[in-house]
Amino acid sequence: MSEMEEAKQGGSPRALVAGLMALLGGVFFAVLLGDDVENFTGSEWADLPTALIVRYLVAMALGGALAGWLLAGMFGRGGIGGWAFAAIGGVLATCCAGLFGSAVGLLPDLLANGWQMADLIPILFGLLVVPLAMAARPFLALGWVVLIVVTHLLAKRRRGG
């Protein structure tokens, strides 16, 4: 499909999937963080590193966008196989969003201090951001399924299917 045809249909499936996965990465990180801060006292709120939280929120959204961009081809295909491909793509994009987001969030520290093997632990922990958020709040699993289904259907529409 040419760029002109994609523009008529509202953009490319790749941009759509990237945007929806960015939403997924940011929202699920915020929910996971919310579980940690919901019972904070006034002094704990004062000690909260707001800039660091914003940095990681943006990083997780960027990680989601990157994962969505890279895995957009798994969404919007026709038939049963397309749905299976979208489900696998959803799991991969979700885990990669956390992984990439953690790496992006840690990037300023890596640039300032250099790479250390211990930096691999928080980066790999990013793989678990969304599953941990869902474990704490089971209704998020339903929200995740809905987001993946919507992503698949909208990508299918953008592909002209």
What does this molecule look like?
This protein is mostly helical. It has eight helices and no strands. It has helices at residues 3-8, 13-37, 42-46, 50-71, 79-113, 120-125, 129-136, 139-159. α2 packs antiparallel against α8 (139-159). The longest helix is centred in the middle third of the chain and has 35 residues, at 79-113. The relative contact order is 0.19. The mean pLDDT is 86.
Name the quaternary structure: single chain
Tally the helices: 8
Number of strands: 0
Low-confidence sequence ranges: none
What is the terminal separation in angstroms?
12 Å
Whole-angstrom Rg: 17 Å
- What's the SSE pattern? HHHHHHHH
Mean pLDDT: 86
The biggest beta sheet reads: none
Shape: globular
Percent range for β-strand residues: under 5%
Helix content: over 70%
Structural class call reads: mainly alpha
Strand and helix map with partners:
Elements: H1 3-8, H2 13-37, H3 42-46, H4 50-71, H5 79-113, H6 120-125, H7 129-136, H8 139-159
Helix pairs in contact: 2-4, 2-5, 2-7, 2-8, 4-5
